[in-house]
Amino acid sequence: METRGRRLLTVLLALVAAAAAPPAVSRDGREVVEVSGAPDGVVWVAQLSDLHFSVHHPERAYDFRRYVGPALAMVNPDLVLITGDLTDGKSKDLLTMKQNEVEWVEYESTIDDIIRISKLPRRIFYDLRGNHDRFGVPASGADYDFYQKYSINAKLRRQGRVQSITVENGGRKHLFVGFDSTMEIGLRGPTNLFGHPTDKQLIELDQALSQWDTGFDKVPVTKIAFGHFPLSFSALTESGKSIKDVFLKQSLAAYLCGHLHTRFGKNLKRYYHRAVQEPSLWEHFYQFNMHQGYAIQSNKENCSEEAVRTEEFWEWEMGDWRKSRSMRILAIDDGYVSYTDIDFRLGSKSIIILPTFPLDSRFMQRASASRDFECHIRGPSTFDTVRALVFSKHEIVSVSVKIYDSRPGTLEVVFDSEMKRVDSNETRGHMYLVPWNWRAFEDPSPSRFWLQIEVMDITGDTSISHLRPFSVNGLTARVNWTWKEFFVIGIQWASIYHPALWCALSLIFSLLLAPQVSAVVFKDQFTYKSLYTNGSERTLFKSLVGGFIWLFVELARVIPVWNLLLVYTIYLVFLPWLFGHPITDDNLTYMTHRGWILKRPSSGNEVVHAGIPDVMIVILPHLCFVLLPTIAILASMAAERTAYREHYLSRSGKKKDDCYQKSRRQIEHENFWNGRWIRKFLCLLCLVVLWKHWKFCRALVKAYAMNPLLHSPVLFFFIPALMGFTIYKTSSI
């Protein structure tokens, strides 16, 4: 009887737990979660990224337990998205990069604690792989693939690289699709920096995002994609296709990603939409500001359902946990997507405020918003209230909203009102709203009016949201990137690698070959005597150009040095740069400018070039910051020797005149040349380049477990040897 009673109690508890949890059902293989206890038509999720749990930095996991667990318990999101770089996979000196099982055990333990503290169901957590989680992993499921052993996705048997879940509330569907575009063969860093989607993955991604497009009920669907890599660090597929084209086709609300970290800036956001006219060639390689400058086709006069849909989406990179201790809360309110970022570096938060309407006109407004305004697609009720989600550990006493007008030159309050909580049976999250005359805020300027919400709880603790501009017209406020932000998110690095590579090589060959041709064709035109004698007859520009050409003509006259530079450059084009172990415990292989030469896993002897364009992190710095400066310095040394020889011969050929007294300026000039200060300065520059080269070589030796004497003597020792030889060769006249 006692055993039967225990069994009955277990069954009853299981039934109660199943009834209490939001039901997850499968409709034709599509996972759907019915949201309960939330305001009607509103869902919200939490995003974390770039955790980088490390054995060398235990404080990262400690702070994660300390802050994230209680915050998730307070926010109670519908989903928790962890977008890559779960562990660090780096040695203490940051040079050796491979998987460390201790870090994965720490990750598993920390996530278990977070689930226990927050009391959230495990199934709402989605953790994707980042490039750090692939360091040195030869293939999925192979040795060192600890993600398949310790991650939440693996434990819940979520197979495949594309995962999707639909959250329903208030008659709307909210589709979230995550995808893993890490390398198929996980190279060790630093040549593991880019996302590498495949054609197969893009097909799966497109199918997942369009799974509700053929429904007969025509329920509105808001689509959100999430992954690790921003598009600026995502390579094209083997057939030249881009993730961007899939996102534009599906007209996402937003793509959530990580990878870049906050150290590059806080405006790592980018807006994409299909251009009316064909973009120029250069626009395939970079974008100068956050918003594309293409003209958007107007739909003002066509508000029918058959009107052409604007193909667009936002890309929102969030800050990292590694140093910035960031977490993002993203909400969808009647199709409008907004977010707020939380910084835990100053401690835990007892109040979190997320305004959901109107939207921030800088980072959240879409081109289709202007059509929504003109045609009222979402219905007048959407515009009739200012709304905000408020999460608090304690009871809320008051919530107020202020709207400021910036036209006078200072912020002047033009709307100040208490917000009221929406009456419902909510058990998670509180929606506050206040009616307003939204037509009074129509304005051609997207940044004239600014919104701020203030909340006070029963303990007297007060929190104020960040000021954000808004535009009920659906206009977008322009924001310019800093140069660092442009560098990491405005440039399409995967597309720029090959043009940059061949431009650098073309410049190097030009500097070596063109002066040689000039020396043969023009003979005595580019000599020190001709430049010195005819200098007064030339313009400044011609003198500078002539002097520049003369430097490299003099280098061409030092035949051994010139030959060695030419042979080395040809070597870099056609032969291996280095040998090493790009995969943990793998056989020795080699790298060229076309990538690492590896055998594809489980495919016999098929050879692939892995790590394109990731090898640019090795190739371009060596060409641009080592080889090019070396050529310029050696050319300057050759020219300095020629100039010093001419000066020496001109002085020694003159007869001494006791009656002649030199001026002070002439004496200083003599001392300058006799001391060969230009040569000493060039030798100092040689040391700077050699230091840069030494750091480069040291990083490669540590990263790929190589012996420089045996595996890569040409790359490592050619530049120092050539500099030493040139210094010796140009020391005498």
Automatic annotation (TrEMBL):
Residue stretches making up the TMEM62 C-terminal domain: 498-713
Under InterPro entries, the record lists:
Calcineurin-like_PHP, Ig_TMM62, Metallo-depent_PP-like, TMEM62_C
Instruction: Write down the superkingdom of origin.
Output: Eukaryota
Instruction: Enumerate the spans annotated as TMEM62 Ig-like domain.
Output: 348-475
Q: Where is the Calcineurin-like phosphoesterase domain?
A: 45-262
Transmembrane spans: 499-522, 543-571, 615-635, 677-694, 709-728
Sorted alphabetically, which keywords does the UniProt record give? Membrane, Signal, Transmembrane, Transmembrane helix
**Signal sequence extent:** 1-26
Pfam families xref list = Ig_TMM62, Metallophos, TMEM62_C
Recorded hits in PANTHER family, A to Z, give: HELICASE RELATED, TRANSMEMBRANE PROTEIN 62
Name by which UniProt lists this protein: Calcineurin-like phosphoesterase domain-containing protein
